[in-house]
Design a protein that fits this description.
Transmembrane segments: 26-45, 51-71, 83-101, 113-137
Strand order of the largest sheet: 1-2
Shape: elongated
Number of strands: 2
Protein name: SPW repeat-containing protein
Largest sheet: 2 strands, antiparallel
Oligomer: single chain
Helix content: 55-70%
Domain SPW repeat-containing integral membrane: 26-133
Strand content: under 5%
Biased composition (Basic and acidic residues): 11-22
Structural class: mainly alpha
Number of helices: 5
Region (Disordered): 1-22
Radius of gyration: 19 Å
Order of helices and strands: EEHHHHH
Length: 152
């Protein structure tokens, strides 16, 4: 069977067969879709303005970053460990944000503890943090095949 070989930006040849496992691709896609959910969830649940903007901005960032990682994997580039680490940190912020904004939300007359948005953020953030941390960890421990660093 013939493999198509291309050259990546560093000048090293790569083939489609050397790409990331399909599991990382689908996990990145799932994290991206959960990020999209975080961005649109304030339209479903009643939310204070501060929580709405936080969810839209953080959710959009997660959607774009995890989507970028999905794109990299689909095009046979290695997983970006730093991007997925940032996604994991943003997911942790998604968990903490409802509690950080609790005083602000109380001033706006909404009871944040009773909102479905809080539980949506906590559960979604937990799932995203675990998946993104796993992807970053697996990418960091992957053994690269080819020539040793500094040799040609």
């Amino acid at each position: 069977m013939s493999e198509s070989t291309t050259t990546d930006p560093t000048g090293e040849p790569r083939t489609r067969e050397q790409g990331e496992p399909a599991g990382k691709k689908w996990l990145s896609g799932i994290v991206s879709l959960i990020g999209l959910w975080i961005a649109v969830s304030p339209t479903i649940y009643e939310a204070a303005a501060s929580m709405t903007w936080n969810n839209v901005l953080v959710g959009a960032a997660i959607f774009l970053l995890a989507g970028y990682n999905y794109y990299r994997i689909v095009n046979a580039y290695p997983t970006s460990t730093s991007v997925m680490s940032l996604v994991a940190l943003l997911a942790l912020w998604t968990i903490a944000a409802p509690f950080a904004f609790e005083g602000q939300v109380a001033m706006e007359g909404l009871d944040v503890a009773a909102q479905g948005l809080v539980w949506s953020n906590v559960v979604s953030g937990l799932i995203m943090a675990v998946l993104a941390a796993y992807i970053a960890y697996a990418a960091g421990t992957a053994v690269r095949t080819g020539t040793a660093a500094g040799t040609r």
